[in-house]
Amino acid sequence: MSSTTPTLHRATVAVVGGGQAGLSASWFLVRDGVDHVVLETGTAGHEWADTRWDNFTLVTPNWHCRLPGYEYDGPDPDGFMTRDEVVAWLSGYAPTFGPPLREHTRVTALTERDGGGFRLEATGPDGPEVWEADHVVVATGGYHVPIVPSWAPALNASITQLHSADYKSPGQLPAGEVLVVGSGQSGAQIAEDLHLAGRRVHLALGDAPRVARFHRGRDSMTWLAEMGLYDTGVAQYPGGLAAREKTNHYVTGRDGGRDIDLRQFAAEGMRLYGLLDSGAGTQLSFLPSLRQALDSADEVYRSICRDIDRHIDAQGIDAPPATPYVPVWEPAEDPTSLDLAAAGISTVVWAIGYRPDYRWVGAGVFDGSGRPTHTRGVTSLPGLYFLGLPWLHTWGSGRYLGIAADAEHVAGAITGRTGATIESAADLARRRSPGSGARLADVALAG
């Protein structure tokens, strides 16, 4: 047979993507005896090793790490696994249930078949393949193409530019000062990584909020889980589906976990700016939004603390008193320009996110921005599902704490099996804190 002749395969369900979302879907399909295949471009979970920097740590406590039939059971449930520890933990998942996983198989096209079902074109280890399936679960996540400004090529060629997905360590960068653009989770943590390594850092802030690492004796993420925020459907949040566009709060799990306080970094020598607006050559311009960005992030920080306080009071929980946050630095000015050469900046790290790329999916289930339209992963096209997206259904979606529940829902839509078996994040948190209960109505939705 010619190597260019596709090998034809058939499965009842094809799961595209072998990360934590795709493997979670497979766990339920294996449990229910459903014929299926998991098609993975690289190796299972490779994104954790390939797109995280050397000193990466989780920003949610280790006890949040759970997949169907598999939970973190290490010695430090309230700690934060490093990148390598996450890779090792995730690599232990597939052997526990034996998913029908085909690695090094890239799906390049998905189309509807006449009479129902789908056709997937792929390139596997031995050449081209075609898969026919009645159902397809797209579990490739929502972060596909790194975003850089359209004018980035206009910067002087002497300036090294890289995206946060390609950042590994301070030693990878040429000598000189570094501009990090973006203050979401990746940008703030990369700025921290460079700052702790002794590099002079310049940070252009966006509108990302922040959160306290610990408040009144417990990790804030543990409080919020107990309060029910990780289980609340996106439609119940103020603004509804618009919550999907929110930037995650910046915080760090490094060295046992702590706040990321950009004001403290500034007091220690980091240069802060507002939103980066444009640039050419070595000249950059910023909006005068620095003070507003810092104040807004701090107000979210305080509002979450107040929500936790109300929860503690409502439940009669014995907790240490609160320690109010007091700003340690205020900007003397709101800089609107920067000469990269004059400042000695050799590198720009873009940490302004990703855009989805589903051009290979030939189905009319996308909105004007290229994002899939769905209700908890179930699209309007019978047999087509999405899994592992941020805010697929809850704040926990796309994270280890919420993937299992979403996967069970999508698998149930395929099999017709109803009834949840996955413990809610709130119940899991309460079980870790005996005697503490909560009702979501007792607290405001933070963020």
UniProtKB/TrEMBL annotation:
<keyword id="KW-0560">Oxidoreductase</keyword>
<dbReference type="InterPro" id="IPR024000">
    <property type="entry name" value="CHP04046_FMN-dependent"/>
</dbReference>
<dbReference type="InterPro" id="IPR050982">
    <property type="entry name" value="Auxin_biosynth/cation_transpt"/>
</dbReference>
<dbReference type="InterPro" id="IPR036188">
    <property type="entry name" value="FAD/NAD-bd_sf"/>
</dbReference>
<protein>
    <submittedName>
        <fullName>MSMEG_0569 family flavin-dependent oxidoreductase</fullName>
    </submittedName>
</protein>
<dbReference type="Pfam" id="PF13738">
    <property type="entry name" value="Pyr_redox_3"/>
</dbReference>
